[in-house]
């Protein structure tokens, strides 16, 4: 089974002070996709620079030619399907059809209250996500959409000429619960996971592999229930949130071992964080670049 290697570039640097160079270098290194986080602010970066995902990806589209681009992930926390669809169609056009939308239900971080609302419960997040994804699907594939739901509405929303990618740009749906997995099975071209968060602090890499195996089995069941072959979906692992933490980036051999174990589970894409000094994502840049250039050749 072939494996793709991608990266996520956090939008914390000014474009002309290192921001642009990371995206250009990602293309030079041969990454399949470079994603960025779609947050208003995030964790330890909250009190420092943090830029918007869509403008960053638009600039990255202009600075690159072949690299796929995407969010990992966008959520309903501060997005509305109607305005998001217009931005995505524009971004897909500017990039020449190189955009993937990573999308998830959101969480309880800073985005959850930035617009002044109380944090949504897990049930409400799931309810909103279940309405958000199908509506966004329609907005990206139909010229005109009218819809009135519990959380979202659209009135003769026009989205002409639609996406460059047909019938629309791909969705990579982040989900581990049953409702989210059903959405991935029905609307996703890819499925995204970060592993089991309960194992991050005290779990072992072996326990993480077992948990991921269980998630993949549930995805397969959701696809079967939707009448879809699970093989049609790419399986994406965003690293850095399993008990392995940053160890796979300590050496080429360590990464090849990590990637090989997860490829055997069925993952088709592994995403590593671009090194961020003095953070949870600190890594030796020379080792990181060697992994980018040489790891996949050792996995064939």
Task: Give your account of this protein's structure.
With 300 residues, the chain is an alpha/beta fold. It has eight helices and ten strands. Helix 7 crosses helix 8. It is globular, with a radius of gyration of 19 Å.
Write the layout of secondary structure elements.
Elements: E1 4-8, H1 15-29, E2 33-36, H2 53-63, E3 68-74, H3 81-95, E4 99-103, H4 122-141, E5 144-148, E6 153-158, E7 171-174, H5 178-187, E8 190-193, H6 205-225, E9 234-238, H7 252-265, E10 269-273, H8 285-298
Parallel strand pairs: 1-2, 1-10, 2-3, 3-4, 4-7, 7-8, 8-9, 9-10
Antiparallel strand pairs: 5-6
Helix pairs in contact: 1-2, 2-3, 3-4, 4-5, 5-6, 7-8
Jot down its keywords.
8 helices, single chain, alpha/beta, 300 residues, globular, 8-stranded parallel beta barrel, two-stranded antiparallel ribbon, 10 strands
What sort of overall outline do the alpha carbons produce when their principal axes are compared? globular
Terminus-to-terminus distance? 8 Å
The rounded Rg comes to 19 Å
Strand order of the largest sheet: 1-2-3-4-7-8-9-10
Q: Averaged pLDDT, please?
A: 97
Order of helices and strands: EHEHEHEHEEEHEHEHEH
Largest sheet: 8 strands, parallel, barrel
**Total helical elements:** 8
| Multimeric state | single chain
Estimated share of beta-strand residues: 15-25%
